[in-house]
Design a protein that fits this description.
This protein is an alpha/beta fold. Helices cover 49% and strands 17% of the residues. It is built from 15 helices and 12 strands. β1, α3 and β2 form a beta-alpha-beta unit. The longest helix is centred in the first third of the chain and has 25 residues.
Amino acid sequence: MKDENQASGAADAVLEAARSALTDLQSTWDREAVDSWCAMVLDRGGRVVLTGMGKSGLVAQKVAATLASTGCPSLYLHPAEALHGDLGMVTEADSVLALSNSGESEEVVRLLPSLVRMGVPLAAITAKADSGLGQAANWRFLYRLPQGEGCPLDLAPMASTTLQLVWGDLLAATLMDRRGFTRDNFALYHPAGSLGAKLLKVNALMHQDWPRVDPGAPLTTILSAMTEGHFGMTSVMEGGRLLGVITDGDLRRGLETAERENRNPLALKANELMSLRPVQIDEGALAVEAAAKMEARKITFLMVERGGRPCGLLHIHDLLAAKVL
């Protein structure tokens, strides 16, 4: 067993190797090559096919997933499987982005003649511009490792995979910017989980059919609307105009007032029971904004409006189901 100082030194070497390589990349990356590659991808409209062997292949899978989730159709193609028929997955509209630190990974290099014959645009993330992959590529996204991999034995890929990953994110971010990728697009590709929930809009969760009664509706009609609606409320509408809402609390207060005034509760009308100026939210607002409004006012629903007119109802159960809350 080595002592703690030696272990700390090995860890520091990894961090220093990555830091020095990233510092170098920040001042040397080829902006024109990135712009040219992005223009090609957007112009062709096909998929970006990622490939790489070993650790570079694992990074390629992550880059493919990032591209796909940010609006660029992509997939990972294992180079060994591609040599045995899976190359047929690549179409004329696609382009290939290959990852190899040395640029000489056997399975990747053996793919190159076929890709050239197919006329598929080829880009490479590699440390060796003069390698087989580097020379075959139309676009080379290069990095250097001033202090090596950082591995105690200088054998395992460490800094190199970090730089490949950064290059992949750099390309994905630039494509997002060029494509005009928005939060709405991101939510579309991430319908599950906390990311999607944070970006959902009210109109994706609201009910377009909600309880409603006329202002002159009697208590029995109000109760029927609230029971059938299952929201613990009903709106009071006059034509397409929202006059107010009636909740369970409004009913209790109305019945208490009727008893105090010695009135027949069955004679109560909607316009006597309703709360005026109900809390509303625009259909284009984020669901998290709706959640904040409900929590701040301690209410369980919001009327949704479009252009000043009611168009839906959002209940707290909808936010819970979508994991916004």
